[in-house]
Amino acid sequence: MAAEVEETLKRIQSHKGVFGTIVVNSEGIPIKTTMDNTSTVQYAGLVSQLADKARSVVRDLDPTNDLTFLRVRTKKHEIMLAPDKDYILIVIQNPSD
Amino acid sequence: MFQQTLRKLNTSKFASKQNSKKKQQAGDQQSAPKPLVDPFLDRIFLQASEIETSAKKSCCFSTKAGSFEKSESQRPSEVDSIRLQEILRVNINFKQIYLGVEQSSRGKIFRIEVQGGRNKGSSALEIPAGEIITEQKLEQEKIGLHETETIKLLEIQSTATPKDLLLPDANIESAATAVAAEHVVDMKSKKMVEAKTQTMNLQVKQKSTMTTPLLSRDVECEATVWDLFDATMDQGETSRKEELNPKFISLPWCETGRRESQGEEQKAPQLGKSAMVIERFLASNLYKSQQAMYFGQSAKIDDKKRTTRFQYELCPLWTYHSAATKNKSVLNLAWNTTNSNILAVAYGQFLLSEDKQGGLVCCWSTKNLTQPERCYPFEHSVSALAFSLNSQLLVVGLQDGKIIVLDVSHAEKKAIVQASLKNGGHVGPVWVLKSVQWTHGEAIVSAGEDGQLLIWSLNLSRIGRFFARIPISLQKKEKVGAADMMDEVPIQEVFSILDFSVSNGADPLILVATKEGYLLEVEMELQIQRVVRAHLGPIYKVQVSPFCWQLALTAGADGKVLLWARSKKDAPILSLAVSASAVVCAEWSPSFSTIVACASGTFLSIWDLARKTHEPVTKVNIGAALTSLVFSPDGMNVLVGDRTGKIHVHSLQDMPYKPLMPVEALLKAIPGLVLL
Known about the structure:
The complex is a heterodimer of chains A (97) and B (676). Helix content of chain A is 38%, strand content 30%. Chain A has 97 residues and is of the alpha+beta class. Chain A is globular and about 35 Å long. Chain B has 676 residues and is mainly beta. Chain B is built from eight helices and 35 strands. A four-stranded antiparallel beta sheet of chain B has the order 3-4-5-6, with no helix packed on it. Chain B is elongated and about 165 Å long. β2 of chain A pairs parallel with β7 of chain B.
């Protein structure tokens, strides 16, 4: 099971345009990363807050609902996060177009 | 005695005369007789006199009789008023004296009643109102005294048990035991009384000591609405809060320590799913425009070039390929029955002479263009596959004749049922698998090299069987189109089935395409109705038009696509000369009634029967030898598989509008088509 996940993560990392992948645990501490330390810590901290805020919005509107994915598209790249109660998976991609 | 008393009333205050027998020491005031009655008739004004309340001889009465005193305030020189029917208290001998005003037939009268205590008599003196009572008057009247009934003002019951109530035969010492003895009492003696005693008033003493102060700590916690919701949801489940979340330090990618993998194990399933979806996002970011075109979301209408010519463009969108599918030919493509985004692809060896590398079944999604979402390897080449009507099950036919039912919802290969030669399966490769609606539900029909058409239930138990057995006698007769060929001597009776198609209509039939070029019309009871020699070589594909059940196409190795109608028994009504090489696959468009797509050699061609039938409206060279073809469920895209393991997706652009009445369009397009 874990090997498959590893493989998927490796594939994501080697996908065209991706420049970073971070896996953060529930406390906001990065577990896996492919970027340098400073950016990782920065991303992890800021993104956790964003994910928490987004989740609280969704759940306050309807407690039976829950947040599954969050994509933040910026001028330079796109940040995709998949929050869960145990972890947050963050991928930063630079789409070619 | 009373009269004596009464006579002395004349010396009362009512009398104006001063009585020398008055014993009042203060002495009454000499005053003029005052009228007794107030004009309002409800007050009696008594002349205040110096009545000494202490002395019992304030009254005008003799001492024997007693004295009366007013119950009201005794302030002298103040006019007192006594209300109606007030009782003047009298002490001792006389119980009551009523002084009241009564209404009687004679007008208002005064009534003075003195009631004796012991003597039950009362006499009243009635004095009409307004009159001044004089002595004479008093003597005229007789006043009697009566005793009224005793009015109880206060009653306090005694709570002490009288001694004579205790049972004589019991040796009782205290009241407590007496009460207890009540219960032993005979029913006869009912002299029972509830007794209560007052307890002693014990002295209470309060004492206090100092304790150590209790330590307290304030903890704040915010509970949002969804925390409460989660709590109610988790009530039945065991709490997983105790799970350790080890604090990992930031480690680079390549270092996968043991602790990390443990952490991964815990989160693996969810992480895997999220990773998969993120991959889809990544892919769609790169192929956004292509996906838009695939889903028909980018219709470019060039206003300037408004001509009535439709170009029928085939725009290449993307290719499905991955490392695993390299060097394997795409043998079959099948769309999922419910989710039109999932495509199952069978990989294997196209030519039987190729090296056996094993087969593969991949499930591709239109959302993830770079990676198949499911990959199931097999030892043999997979030659046929079909989704069951319940879209989770995928039925796979292998080259060694096995039929396997897979559950696509799992990423690992999970064969649910398997059918091989032992349970009555095929000998040789299974060429076609189709999922049809049978009498009692769903059935899977398989056709193979051995000439059998087998009908299975979903759990792969065989229901029916059909042999493509053509008697030699029939074969000799039907030798259409073989005029310039050598005389063929039929040697076999059973022919391998390469494809079949069910025509559902008023007169249902199964059209079976064989390897020798025979097209069989088979009734639903699996009896051959007719044999037609369709092509010179194997018929690779037969398909009934989705719009008209009486029309079918066949694609053969002679490079032709023939159209057959029920009305014309022995010959096709239309022939499309696709190419010189074999037409490996042809398909009707599921949305456009007159469009046919053909794959032959390296070319993909689109034919529109309504436009022209001598050449295709558009043709594209893919670049690799094609093996299979399928339309997307909405008919706007074409997917072709080739022998290198790639699947090319093309979108049909610049198409005319769909005909409103598809059957009419077909009738118009194909001359000679007559509907039964």
